[in-house]
Amino acid sequence: MFYACVALPLLQLPSPQPPTRPLMETSAFQESAIATARAGARILATQSYRLATLTIRQHLLVGVQAGRKELHSAHGHVAAKPGQALLVAQNTQWDVINDPAGDLRYEAIVLSFDDALVRENLPCALEAGAQAVHANQLITLDEELLGAMQRTLPAQSGQPGSARIQHHRLQEVLILLAERGLYFAPASEMDWSERIRQLVWQQPEAEWNVPMLAERFHLSESSLRRRLDGKGTSVAAVVREARLERALALLQTTATPVGEVARQCGWDSHSRFSAVFQERWGVSPSVVRARLKESAQELTETE
To answer: Is the per-residue pLDDT at 29 higher than 90?
Structure first.
């Protein structure tokens, strides 16, 4: 069933698409999804902490195995306990609490799905009659879904696996979600803030400024500023947020020392980094880092 879904004609998408390709030829969506397929991650915390106004950049699936995860917004809140999973739509914003809640630790498996993978899965979801997740959705983390999520985690050897295999493992999870009546909707065209954020994410220690970014995007400096002004933001604000999001990901999911995280994300001063991090997220780097380091696994797109 898995391969049958992947091979469904792309003409089932709601917007016009190129003619269906032969079965053995990989579609453009598949090529993009395979190239960007990333491993899942295990996030651990030994004390409760709250992250303020965290923007979800890619669709997330969070399977809670110990403790409790909470999402809070002005419209209410939702909490997931062991044996439950949260689907969280991209471009939503939440206060996030990771709480051991009486257990030894908070522990969850987190998967992120980029737009290419989501678009490739869309025909399967529509065929299954699934409903799109627009904010969040709480579901049961049954053994079949948990097993599929665990297969996306990095190998214990630490060696990177095949991107094609990882792509199929993530697709398996999306198909299981569709069979349970849910899917993630593809995003509209990426805005300029997100394009800059993705570029900075790859090299957060670089001295990003308007001239450098304008050159990378083959734009004039005035054009780049104008496109960001239209969104009510600036290059400096986008770069700062991307660096802080990258730092959060490293602290949650790797054993990299806090000082090294600061350096990798563009801060020369450990103390200055800690102050900025505390101001943005409402929690210190040391609290986020208070977890079972020996079990940490890297997450390439943050939650």
So the answer is: no
Here the tokens at position 231 are 């969104």
What tokens does 160 get?
């990177």
**Residue owning tokens 């069933």:** 1
The pLDDT tens digits for 246-297 are 999 899 888 889 999 999 999 999 999 999 999 999 999 988 887 544 343 4
SS3 51: strand
| Residue 190 CA from chain centroid, whole number | 15
Q: Assign 243 a pLDDT band (cuts: 50, 70, 90).
A: very high
Going by pLDDT thresholds of 50, 70 and 90, the confidence category of residue 61 is very high
DSSP annotation of 11 reads G
Residues 241/170/95/76 CA torsion (nearest 10 deg): 140
Close Cβ partners of 280 (under 8 Å, ≥ 6 residues apart): 52, 241, 244
Please tell me whether residue 236 adopts helix, strand or coil conformation: helix
The 10 Å Cβ neighbour count of residue 209 is 12
Alpha-carbon distance of 224 to 246, in angstroms, equals 23
CA distance 254 to 201: 16
Return the H-helix or E-strand segment holding 110.
strand 106-113
How far apart CA 303 and CA 192 sit, in angstroms, is 21
Percent of the chain with pLDDT over 90: 44
**β 131-133/182-184 pair status:** parallel
Domains and CATH numbers, the chain: 1-188 (2.60.120.810), 192-294 (1.10.10.60)
User: What percentage of the chain's residues is helix, strand, coil (to nearest 5)?
Assistant: 40, 20, 35
User: Contact, 182 vs 217, CB < 8 A?
Assistant: no
Structure token pair of residue 280: 């943005």
CA distance 204 to 240: 9
d(CA 248, CA 57): 13
